[in-house]
Structure formats: C-alpha cells, structure tokens
Amino acid sequence: MSEGLWRKFADWAIEFDRTSFFSDDFDASGWDWAAFHERGLQLSRWLKEEVGNAYRVVYEKPYEDPDCGLEERREVLADGTWVQRPLSRQAQ
User: Lower CB density within 10 Å: C or N end of the chain?
Assistant: First the structure.
C-alpha cells in the first residue's frame, strides 16, 4: 500500500476509533454512517487499484453500525464493481 493511501486509511480509522459509540453522551444523529461507508468503500477501491488481482479487498461494516446486517460484507473487483460476500469464511 502506498504511503499516501495508508495515511487516508489511518485518518478514516482514527476518526472512527475516537468516536464513543457506547457512551452515555454519544449523539447518534451526529454520526453519518452513509458518509463513513462511502469513504471506506472509496478507500477500498483505491486499495484494489494499487494491489490488483494479487489480493482480495473486502469491505466489512463495523458492528457499531445499526444497519451492519445490510450489505455487511462486500468485495471490490478489479473493475471497481462490488460482490456481496457471506460473513462465514466457510461459506466462501
């Protein structure tokens, strides 16, 4: 992974890690899951562009997302399209 892309992933992950999803003062209306996933999916596409077919790139929603069961795990293909993947490694 290039250093530039690593930094983008790190910034995205740090923002998530600093969010107190389960604290009493957490305001769920202030967290934009759609924007969070859009950014994560774009980062995943860029990663796939960098690594090509040598690696599988799979995006999985975190369990903190109230809608984590909807399209929870997707693999990005070399052409940028997405394929749903089951959670169980045995089912792949």
Answer: C
Alpha helices in the chain (DSSP H): 3-17, 33-51
Contact 41, 59 (CB under 8 A): yes
Structure letter (DSSP) for residue 87: S
Crossing angle (nearest 10°) for helices 3-17 and 33-51? 160
What is the distance between the alpha carbons of residues 50 and 85, in angstroms, rounded to a whole number? Answer: 21
Per-10-residue mean pLDDT for the chain, 92 residues long?
Answer: 96 88 72 92 96 94 85 92 78 46
Measured between alpha carbons, how far is 82 from 75 in angstroms, rounded to an integer? Answer: 6
